Every structure is written in C-alpha cells, then in structure tokens.
C-alpha cells in the first residue's frame, strides 16, 4: 500500500512541476526598457505604432504514459491443491497392488487427499468395474485397466479420462514428471486413438519356465520356437503324474496368454479398426 501511495504522490509532483514550468517562465523579471527618442515628426503627426512583440509559445506537453501493469505470477504446482478431498480407487488383487498400498499413507500426508481403496480378486474386480462404469454412478475415480484388451471399448464408451490436458497443465503436473522415465513400449501402450488414457504401472510379458533336469535327461535343448515347445510338451506329457505344459486359463488371463500365440503367428485382435480374429493367422493360432 505504501508503495502505491508513494508512486501516486510522485506522479502528482511531476504533474505540478510540469504546470509550474511555463508559469515560472512567464513571471520572470522584465529587463529595463531603453528610453524612447523624441519623435522628429512634425507636431500633430500621429506616431507610428510599435508592433507588440509576440509572446513566446508555451511548450506543449504530451499525454502522460499509462503505467505498464505487472505480469501475473506464473502458476505453479502444489501438492496441497486438492487438500481435503478424497478419491475412490479400485484395485485388482495383484503383486503390484500389494507393493503400492504401503505407500498410500505417504501420498495422503503429502497431498491431504484421502484414498478410499477397494481390492478384489481379478474376476470380481473386472465385473465390478464394468457394472459401475456402465451404470454411470460417477463414484469411481481410479481403477486398473488392461488397455491392450479393453482400451478401445472403454475409450469409445467414455469411461476413460483423457490425460493429455493434465500433463500439459503446470499446476497439475510436477515439472520433473517425464514420460521418458517409462519404457517406450509401456508408455505407447497407454494410448488409444492417439489419446493418453492411462499411466503404466506394470508391464508383463510371457516367459517359458522349464524343468532343466528333465530337458537334460531327455537330451533336449530349451524350446526356441513354437514347434520346439509343442514337441517338448508332448514328450513330457504323462498324466496324471506329469503334464507337458500348463498356462493361466481364467478369463482375462487366458486372453493375455492367447495373445502371445496370436502375435507369434502374425495375427492381431484388430486390423484397421475392424475385428481380425477370423484372419488366417488367427485361425492358425487357435488351432495350435
């Protein structure tokens, strides 16, 4: 406030001095006039009038410049921006969920946001997420999702929040947040039709585990191709004592397992936005 008053008074002083400038010049003491010589014109002749000197033009003052307003301070990120609020999080019972839950109290202390978490086995979790999103209750804030499987369906149904605007907003995202901290394949997998719909929290891949002792006894090398895998599985398959190969086979997990075979045969779930499950490559994968 004092700075504002001082500047105002300073401006008033400048304006007063500008007004007094011409006035001071007009009030300067006049010089003593030289006596006028006696006219030589004949008596009665009218004297020639002396022209009046032109008064000096007063200097023109320009308009007062408008002060330049100060720029508003740049918006910055604050951990406490959503303090006092809560978010409801649905999680699939999973090793990642078990690893991340102990960090929730740290997040709550840092942000002041309370996490309401619910954890369900995979089948129950997927059913609950689908039912709630279909009902449109609006109480679900965060949930785990397999974009590779359900991404297109969820995105077109409007069940995903596009995250690009949030990452571009300096008040909502830390300056240190960098997509390059993630593996490129994991980050790219979170895009649907060019829009970022999620953040990668886990990246899974299919790995072949095998009994080294059995392969050595049979004189076989570890399988390097699908044909090698099939041959080894047939050779070791002796139920009920031993099964040649076992894989996950429950609903969503079975879909992920089959994806490995589908892609190995050159097939895909979708091609140019249309189902491709009946392509020759996909049919070959199913028969295998």
List keywords for this structure.
mainly alpha, 288 residues, D-Maltodextrin-Binding Protein, domain 2, 39% helix, 8% strand, 11 helices
In brief, what are we looking at here?
With 288 residues, the chain is mainly alpha-helical. It has helices at residues 2-26, 95-100, 104-111, 122-135, 147-156, 164-168, 184-188, 212-218, 226-236, 251-264, 280-287, and strands spanning 86-92, 114-120, 142-143, 191-192, 195-196, 270-271, 274-275.
Explain what this protein looks like in three dimensions.
The chain is 39% helix and 8% strand. With 288 residues, it is mainly α. Among the domains are: 86-196, 3-Layer(aba) Sandwich (D-Maltodextrin-Binding Protein, domain 2), CATH 3.40.190.10; 212-287, Periplasmic binding protein-like II (D-Maltodextrin-Binding Protein, domain 2, 3-Layer(aba) Sandwich). Helix 10 (251-264) packs across helix 11 (280-287). Mean pLDDT is 79; it is low at 1-46.
| Secondary structure category | mainly alpha
From the 3D coordinates, which CATH architecture of the domain at 86-196 would you assign? 3-Layer(aba) Sandwich
Uncertain stretches of 5 or more adjacent residues: 1-46
At the fourth level of CATH, the homologous superfamily of the domain at 86-196 is Periplasmic binding protein-like II
Q: What is the CA-CA span between the terminal residues?
A: 81 Å
Shape: elongated
Order of strands, widest sheet: 2-1-3
Q: H/E series, N to C?
A: HEHHEHEHHHEEHHHEEH
Instruction: Kindly report the CATH topology of the domain at 86-196.
Output: D-Maltodextrin-Binding Protein, domain 2
Largest sheet: 3 strands, parallel
Tally of helical segments: 11
Q: What portion of residues is helical?
A: 25-40%
For the secondary structure, the number of strands is 7
């Amino acid at each position: 406030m004092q700075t504002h008053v001082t500047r105002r008074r300073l401006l008033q002083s400048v304006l007063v001095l500008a007004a007094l400038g011409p006035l001071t010049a007009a009030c300067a003491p006049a010089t003593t006039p030289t006596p006028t010589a006696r006219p030589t014109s004949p008596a009665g002749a009218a004297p020639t009038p002396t022209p009046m000197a032109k008064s000096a033009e007063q200097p023109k003052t320009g308009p007062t410049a408008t002060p330049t307003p100060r720029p508003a301070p740049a918006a910055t990120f604050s951990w406490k921006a959503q303090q006092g609020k809560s978010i409801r999080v649905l999680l699939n019972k999973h090793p990642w969920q078990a690893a991340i839950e102990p960090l929730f109290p740290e997040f709550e202390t840092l942000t002041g946001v309370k996490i309401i978490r619910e954890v369900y086995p995979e089948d129950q979790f997927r059913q609950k997420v689908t039912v709630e999103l279909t009902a449109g209750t609006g109480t679900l804030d965060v949930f785990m999702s397999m974009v590779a499987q359900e991404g297109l369906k969820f995105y077109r149904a409007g069940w995903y929040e596009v995250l690009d605007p949030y990452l571009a907003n300096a008040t909502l995202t830390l300056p240190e947040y960098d997509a390059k901290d993630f593996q490129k394949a994991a980050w790219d997998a979170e895009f649907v039709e060019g829009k970022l719909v999620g953040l990668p929290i886990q990246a899974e891949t299919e790995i072949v585990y095998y009994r080294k002792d059995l392969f050595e006894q049979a004189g076989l090398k570890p399988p390097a191709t699908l044909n090698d895998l099939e041959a080894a599985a047939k050779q070791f398959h002796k139920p009920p004592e031993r099964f040649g190969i076992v894989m996950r086979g429950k609903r969503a997990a079975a879909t992920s397992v089959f994806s490995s075979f589908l892609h190995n045969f050159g097939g895909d779930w979708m091609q140019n936005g249309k189902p491709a499950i009946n392509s020759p490559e996909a049919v070959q994968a199913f028969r295998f």
